Amino acid sequence: MTVAWQWYPAAIMRPPAVAAAFRSCPDRHGTGSEKWDRWAGRDVLPMWVADMDFSAPEVVLDAVRARVAHGVFGYTHEPPGFRPALAGHLARRHGWQVDPDSIVGVPGVVTALSITARLCSEPDDGIVSCTPIYPPFLTLPGLAGRRSIRVPLVQDKAAWAIDWEAVERAAADPRSTLFWLCHPHNPTGTVFGRADLLRLADLAERYGLAVVSDEIWADLVLDEEAVHVPFASLDHPAARRAITLTAPSKTWNLAGLGCAAAIVPDAALRRRWRAGGGGLVPLVNPLGYAAAEAAWRHGEEWRLDLLALLRRHRALVLERVAAIAGLSCLPWQATYLAWIDCRATGVVDPQAACEAAGLGPSDGRDFGLPGFIRLNTACPTPQLLGALDRLAAAFTHP
Ligand SMILES: Cc1ncc(COP(=O)(O)O)c(C=O)c1O
């Protein structure tokens, strides 16, 4: 096999183009890591849940250290810099002017999705989303007493795209009241363009759906020519009432600090939102707020270095996957997730085959599409190369 990977394998440990922050990761064993504990005691390389095997940026660590030095950790609402930091970030990065007053701190995007199910729909209503999709989109509606309405994306040679006729059928059902958009999309990495977003906005307006747009991946767009357009930034009535969910946790690897944000334009809904936890939703912790603010204000250089690495990892994965008989993978425009089609291998349970070969990806079944696996590429390059060797072993029959 030819590998057009300029520093593989000779210079792999010290590739000049990889920023120091991404060359290694502290050992995560014994830290309560969801990712690393899943196959504890077995030789299975965990490449599943979407956190990265990198330390958070120094600028974020400094902010957390400063907050720890203060020493008082009482009940905390949004500190004064939090909303302006996010508003500034959205304006700089996405050209979107957001009223800082519309921003509400939440301990997680998944929590926020659950809140929207309870506040913006009635029991037994339908919540529409496009599959395959990040598993909570499929499970949360049922937990809230709503129905999950699943519309499969369609795969052509170049991309995963929305099946508009099917979306319209789902939206036209009078019991459908919410559309949960995953934008950019996990696990396919699709960045929906302005034309798609406007089409969705038209349907939402015509059939009275509220759109909730989960934009947690918006700052990890890898394609130079793809532009993330926040759904709510469209000049459209459906966009003006849309709720946007975001967080610094994917981009700067802060998931364990539990800090996200909802942008809720309607003031009355915001008041209900704050009361909407009904004792179930805790306040965001002060370290999460400190980290989020620092990431949005000072994390750009780190983010750009990360993108450079993730682009190289994407090229590497695509090349290696193409060389394994029966596997295929479309180039993902955003995220650090490879969505790999294993159906042509004839292997009935690809997840089990991977685990038997010492590789721990995510199972496509959890995303609503059996026959696929999702591989997390956000780790030091040597670890990814090891994972790709195990992937080849899983589907290579002697
Ligand atoms: C699309 C999407 N939304 C939400 C989350 C999780 O967000 P949080 O940890 O803030 O609940 C993830 C994590 O992978 C995700 O991919």
Topology:
Blueprint: H1 34-37, E1 45-46, H2 58-70, H3 82-94, E2 103-106, H4 109-120, E3 126-131, H5 136-143, E4 147-152, E5 154-155, E6 160-161, H6 164-172, E7 176-182, H7 194-207, E8 210-214, H8 237-240, E9 243-246, H9 249-252, E10 260-263, H10 267-275, H11 286-298, H12 300-322, E11 328-329, E12 337-341, H13 350-356, E13 359-360, E14 362-363, E15 372-376, H14 381-395
Parallel strand pairs: 1-13, 3-4, 3-7, 7-8, 8-9
Antiparallel strand pairs: 2-10, 5-6, 9-10, 11-12, 12-15, 14-15
Helix pairs in contact: 2-11, 3-11, 4-5, 12-14, 13-14
Pyridoxal-5'-phosphate binds at residues 50, 108-110, 134, 182, 186, 214, 216, 247, 249, 255, 260.
Give a description of the structure:
With 398 residues, the protein is α/β, with parallel strands linked by helices. The protein is 37% helix and 15% strand. The chain contains 14 helices and 15 strands. The chain has helices spanning 34-37, 58-70, 82-94, 109-120, 136-143, 164-172, 194-207, 237-240, 249-252, 267-275, 286-298, 300-322, 350-356, 381-395; strands at 45-46, 103-106, 126-131, 147-152, 154-155, 160-161, 176-182, 210-214, 243-246, 260-263, 328-329, 337-341, 359-360, 362-363, 372-376. Residues 1-15 have low confidence and may be disordered. The protein binds pyridoxal-5'-phosphate (PLP).
Helix percent band: 25-40%
Run of helices and strands: HEHHEHEHEEEHEHEHEHEHHHEEHEEEH
Work out the helix count: 14
Instruction: Tell me the total number of β-strands.
Output: 15
Proper CATH architecture of the largest domain: 3-Layer(aba) Sandwich
> What is the terminal-to-terminal distance?
17 Å
- Beta-strand level of the residues, as a percent range? 5-15%
- What is the CATH homology-level superfamily of the largest domain? Type I PLP-dependent aspartate aminotransferase-like (Major domain)
Label the overall shape: globular
Quickly name the level 1 CATH class of the largest domain: Alpha Beta
- Average per-residue pLDDT, rounded, comes to 94
Bound molecules: pyridoxal-5'-phosphate
- CA radius of gyration is 21 Å
User: Might you state the CATH topology name of the largest domain?
Assistant: Aspartate Aminotransferase, domain 2
Structural class: alpha/beta
- Contiguous low-pLDDT stretches (5 residues minimum) are 1-15
